[in-house]
Design a protein that fits this description.
Elements lengths: L2 E4 L2 E4 L2 E3 L12 H13 L4 E3 L8 H10 L8 E6 L1 E3 L5 E4 L3 H15 L4 E6 L8 H13 L3 E7 L3 H10 L2 E7 L10 H9 L2 E5 L31 H21 L3 H10 L14 H8 L8 H10 L12 H5 L4
Parallel strand pairs: 3-4, 4-5, 5-8, 8-9, 9-10, 10-11
Antiparallel strand pairs: 1-2, 6-7
């Protein structure tokens, strides 16, 4: 497995997003999820991503159980705080207050069953709390040895600069894929100027870029994507047409649609480490093989012509979700 650098943190060139193992995408099976995490580590995918809000803590507990027998030094654990939920899953908003940062970290350490979190992200920026206060509290966790590196998720360039002035930020995590190219330009320019790594989540467009979703009925009844704008009516069909062209190119390249989409993200820079999520070993293994796909300049230009920036139909989230982005 090739390695890449996120700031001063070395991780596998591809990570594993664990969110869907506990919530949001339907069809959960804990035994297969744990087997998938352990298989990832066997394959050299050692960068595991979770958050305290996924499954209202259950995902951190699952990841903790999965790695317990593997050895702590074999994985790089990333988790997040800030999206607050009640025990029944109800959203309680965003909290970046220093006292909450400390409470959230202690709870995550307990659920993960570890003494230190390798990369600790603020999941969403709290507009009511100065970023300096939030990152100041996160920096104290580093000094206490509870956290090794700090990250932000869905933060805009000026917020990143202000945060980085308080304590070095190792990584910025933001949605980035063939159909979500908003980070290109100021966001990527900023993190590269500051020496911050970039972690794209949903690099397969929440599964749409896999070519496996042909109809909304392919999704489980409790799958949150049924209500996502890009999966709705006319948007769905327009986006499906884009994917079909990528499928054609994948066949010509001798790879799957997923592998082509991931290879494109990986080709955007050695400071980029995508974290495709899956809860099944067979898809994990398919994703890892994307590292073997080489894209030429002509290939990249062709992909740009098929799915140019801004061509995806619909917004990333519904209106309330878009308002939570700190961009």
């Amino acid at each position: 497995m090739r390695q890449r650098r996120l700031g001063t943190l070395t991780v596998s060139a591809l990570g594993l997003g664990c969110m869907g193992m506990s919530e949001f995408y339907g069809g959960r099976e804990e035994g297969e999820a744990i087997a998938t995490i352990r298989r990832a580590v066997e394959l050299g995918v050692t960068f595991l991503d979770t958050a305290d809000m996924y499954g209202v803590g259950r995902n951190e507990e699952l990841v903790g159980r999965a790695i317990r027998e593997l050895g702590r030094d074999r994985v790089v654990l990333a988790t997040k705080f800030g999206n607050v939920r009640a025990p029944d899953g109800t959203s309680l908003g965003i909290n970046g207050k220093p006292e909450y940062v400390r409470q959230a970290c202690e709870a995550s350490l307990r659920r993960l069953g570890v003494e230190t979190i390798d990369l600790y992200y603020q999941h969403r920026v709290d507009s009511s709390t100065p970023i300096e206060d939030t990152v100041g509290a996160m920096a104290e966790l580093v000094r206490q040895g509870k956290v090794r590196h700090l990250g932000l998720s869905e933060a805009g360039p000026q917020t990143v600069r202000r945060a980085h002035a308080v304590h070095p930020i190792t990584a910025l995590q933001t949605e980035y894929s063939l159909w979500s190219r908003d980070p290109e330009g100021e966001i990527l320019d900023t993190v590269r100027e500051l020496g911050i790594g970039f972690v794209p989540y949903s690099p397969l467009g929440r599964g749409f870029l896999t070519g496996q979703i042909r109809s909304i009925d392919d999704l489980e009844p409790d799958d949150f994507r049924r209500n996502a704008p890009r999966f709705q009516s006319e948007n769905f069909q327009k986006n499906l047409d884009l994917v079909r062209e990528i499928e054609t190119m994948g066949r010509e390249k001798g790879c799957t649609t997923s592998q082509l989409a991931l290879a494109w993200v990986l080709a955007q820079g050695n400071d980029i480490v995508p974290i495709p999520g899956t809860k099944r070993r067979r898809y994990l293994e398919e994703n890892v093989r994307a590292l073997d796909v080489t894209l030429t300049k002509d290939d990249l230009a062709r992909i740009d012509s098929i799915i140019p920036p801004g061509s995806a139909a619909g917004t990333r989230y519904h209106e309330a979700g878009m308002k939570m982005l700190g961009l």
